[in-house]
Write a structure and sequence with these properties.
The chain is mainly beta. The protein has a single domain, classed as Jelly Rolls. Helix content is 0%, strand content 49%. It is built from no helices and ten strands. The strands form two sheets. The chain has a six-stranded antiparallel beta sheet with strand order 1-2-3-10-5-8, with no helix packed on it. A hairpin with a 2-residue loop joins strand 2 and strand 3. It is globular. The N and C termini lie far apart (36 Å). The relative contact order is 0.24.
Length: 119
Amino acid sequence: MEKAGKGKTAEIEKNKSHIIVEIVEYIPNAVLSKTIIKRATGNITVISLDAGEEVEEKASAFDNYIQIIDGSAEITISDKVFNLKLGEGIVIPANAKHSYNANEQFKMISTIIKSGYED
């Protein structure tokens, strides 16, 4: 496992069941990610943020579906704050500035689809 956004991460093992919330652990003062699937057309990643951590504002050229799988998260999209609880999800639109803030530790699944923008 590596810090989010740093280096290349191998996919999880195929044809083996897993418990999604256990794919990444919490590490004090860290943001971690583990790639489930990575393709040219999109990727699925599990990310954990320890309490007090944040992912600074950025924008992606593609839609990104976020689902909270542990804890709760504060997600800011285009200057609007959303507080998502366990089981809740939201689509971050392509090119929208967004950031994540962990008022408490949380884990999320990020699904980015890179195809369909050719139209």
